[in-house]
Amino acid sequence: xxxxxxxxxxxxxxxxxxxxxxxxxxxxxxxxxxxxxxxxxxxxxxxxxxxxxxxxxxxxxxxxxxxxxxxxxxxxxxxxxxxxxxxxxxxxxxxxxxxxxxxxxxxxxxxxxxxxxxxxxxxxxxxxxxxxxxxxxxxxxxxxxxxxxxxxxxxxxxxxxxxxxxxxxxxxxxxxxxxxxxxxxxxxxxxxxxxxxxxxxxxxxxxxxxxxxxxxxxxxxxxxxxxxxxxxxxxxxxxxxxxxxxxxxxxxxxxxxxxxxxxxxxxxxxxxxxxxxxxxxxxxxxxxxxxxxxxxxxxxxxxxxxxxxxxxxxxxxxxxxxxxxxxxxxxxxxxxxxxxxxxxxxxxxxxxxxxxxxxxxxxxxxxxxxxxxxxxxxxxx
Length: 381
Known about the structure:
By secondary structure, the chain is an alpha+beta fold. It has helices spanning 17-32, 35-43, 62-67, 81-84, 107-118, 163-195, 201-229, 242-253, 279-296, 326-329, 347-358; strands at residues 47-51, 57-60, 122-130, 137-149, 152-161, 238-241, 263-266, 274-277, 302-310, 313-320, 362-368, 372-380. The strands form three sheets. It has a five-stranded antiparallel β-sheet. Helix 6 (163-195) runs antiparallel to helix 7, helix 8 (242-253) crosses helix 9 (279-296) and helix 9 packs antiparallel against helix 11. The radius of gyration is 25 Å and the shape is elongated.
């Protein structure tokens, strides 16, 4: 085995290249040499891997080679699953797949460890991987089952990409949830207009206009995310003025239900910086930061918004006094992560996707007791 490396979860120990070669030969002789077994592995649509006790690949089927556009498995053997799929938490220099803080919540690692510990049964989980090479988020359904060959323990690991299936479900759920909520608001206001007196007409009409703009904004947001995930979004790059943008957002969000009983203020040090970007996408990103901060704030809380020039970039930031729990911090930009209930995980993921893939920006955050939470979005000036 190679030298030990620190780990915050599963063992960081790795099998040497010679051990991987010997294990590959053993598995091939006992399983893959059988024409029927080989044919079965290569015909199934799922990705199939055989892992050794250190969670490294010692054999795989053709589906994985096809996915990685590889002629054979030579470049795959010895890697761990997160390394095969370019997981952002699978840096081999720091121990590799399974050894980081985030790995404690990874369904793939949990399934492997459960199979290794129990030596019988099949353990199924789901996991989200954000890929370091593309920034894409992929959703996987995984299953693991342990078996022995010549006294050595191995794990049969099966992977099914369910990204499209989950994406459609989430898109439908979010779209219908948000649109029905706002449509119900418009219906209620319309009934008030019908039954009310002339003195109340201007106030109710103004609320209808605001609600209608929100409805259109929600529809456009879902459309943008759908196009963005399919690589079909075309940003409209024009001059943008940072202070003007956040002032418009504050004027919009101060009327939202989530802002009731809370203060929404612009930091006094903010200045108007001109730069080129897509104002619609920017408004959705920074607007989502504001909305999240308002939702996280208690009644009487203050949400502060600012913009500044920093290291050659224009930076927008939104601060609130709440603290994000550690378990949420380590997975906050995953596509399916949410603290708002089932299938409500597009906010922070959408911010990152639109910023980093389409606006050449960077989204990050800080959260600590006594300091609260601040989200940052930086774009080239």
